[in-house]
Amino acid sequence: MSASLASRIPSSFRDLPPVVWTLFAGTVVNRLGYLVTPFLVFFLASRGVTGTETSYVLGALGAGNLVGPAVGGILADRIGRRPTMLIGLIGASAAQGALFLAPGVWTMAAAALLISAAGSTVSPAAYALLADAVDSERRQRAYALFGWGVNIGTAVAGILGGYLAARGYWLLFAVDAGAMLAYALVVVFRLPEPKRTTAGRNPEGRPGERKDGIGYGVVLRDRLALLLLPLFGVQLFVYSLTEVALPLAIRDSGLSPAVYGAMAAVNAVLVVALQPFATSWLARFPRLAVQGAGSTLIALGVALTGLADGVAGYAVSVVVWSLGEVMVAGIAAGVIADLAPAHARGRYQGAFSWTWGTARFAALTLGVATYTTLSPTVLWWTGLAVGTVTAAATVALRTRVETRTAHELAA
Fold this sequence. Notes:
Helices cover about 80% and strands about 0% of the residues.
């Protein structure tokens, strides 16, 4: 890396190894093609799929996020990080073509299931590869950089998607599939496969050999991970309401879809602009304390949505939860990576990604149902309550996590 280029990189990311930067670049390319999912409802309507039939396809898309991470975690530990990523990227790319060419609702649903299931196998392998590449001290920054790449790509894709959709939905599918194949080429030619680790370690951090098999028993025996994952899951559910319920609130306020687009742009600009600097500044504080504070901000921002009745009010709520999003970037994934024995990093990240998929699925189903059948007020204030409680519970586990991490470093 040249001196001039290095000087332009935020200080919090400068000492990260080439593997991390390669994953960052591949992620940006891949997310530039994140076009089909945001416009899927419009594409389905253009094919005459509306009402209940639309829910079948969207439900299949959500269900795939419950399958892919679990499979991806096992494969990442069993056959390797790179092969798993290639299976997911190539499979999801092929599924994009299948969805575009699908002749009916059920074939569309099957293709949507494959898109999300194959696509979501990539994250556990990529996260495990990040954990392989950096030590515990730098993992949060590596995961924050990865998340920064997701936000950069998604922000550009939001603008690109609207432009392409107006000129033909086939362009969305072509760019999406092409971006996945481009990332696959990056994996083939630029990413090394780490040396495999087979020795086991007690899940509580004590040295010793243990046969863990290839399933998720190693995670299920880890009591600390089983405490943290549900807490992170509830926090991710509250965050997912910003994607699922916010558009409903804006619609019910009589505002146009363009307002939601503007709110998404506010979020993207704040995260992309602030995250590198916030990551560096917040590194001086305990990770779980930052996670708790950021999660509380996200919950507060979500609750403020219930008080908004115009563009200004929604903008304030988006700014609040966006600042929380900036604070928590990379922390949860980094903590889970630190808990994982080296030979089981794929499965630990698979469990974390599955938690993320479950949270999004719950927001799509339980969150929307609460909003429509009970009331928006119930959803917003429940989000504040559970978000605040789980944030406090996460901070309460700080000593146990730090003790466990110290054992792993000593070992």
